[in-house]
Amino acid sequence: VQLQASGGGSVQPGGSLRLSCAASGFRVSINVMGWYRQAPGKQRELVAVITRGGNTNYADSVKGRFTISRENAENTMYLQMNSLKPEDTAIYYCNANIAGVPYWGKGTLVTVSS
After folding, report:
1. Any residues with CB less than 8 A from the CB of 37 and at least 6 apart, and which?
2. DSSP letters of 81-101?
3. Which residues pair with 10 in a beta bridge?
4. Residue 81 contacts residue 64 (beta carbons within 8 Å)
5. SS3 category, 14
6. pLDDT means per 10 residues in the chain (114 residues)?
7. For residue 89, how many other CB atoms are within 10 A of its CB?
8. Among 3, 52, 89, 114, which one has the highest count of C-beta atoms within 10 angstroms of its own C-beta?
């Protein structure tokens, strides 16, 4: 199983980025996919999750600014990040729960700075 995250980069406060995560190498459906992030010196935290049926859940810190979505047929997940703040700076990881086993991608760096 491989999870490939992309779309990170540097942006000024108030800017936007769109992260993508492509999953491959498996034959069963993915129930839950999610984005997590880890800022320097901090623990990894949940950003947003989405079920195969489209139910979503967000961390309070990103509600109203970030939108998670997925394309089940392509096993691809997205995170649209708007109104970015310096505190959003972190490595963002995609996660997929496949048959009860969590898988992680390598992460993509998001830097929000003026």
Report:
1. 44, 45, 47, 88, 90, 91, 92, 93, 110
2. E-S--GGG-EEEEEEEEETTE
3. 111
4. no
5. coil
6. 93 98 84 95 97 96 97 91 98 92 93 97
7. 17
8. 3
Length of the chain (residues):
114
Structure tokens at 72: 């089940």
Longest dimension (CA), the chain: 44
CA torsion through residues 105, 7, 22, 37, sign: positive
Query: Which residues is 26 bridged to in the sheet?
Result: none
How many CA atoms lie less than 13 Å away from 4 in the CB half-sphere? 5
The amino acid that residue 81 corresponds to is M
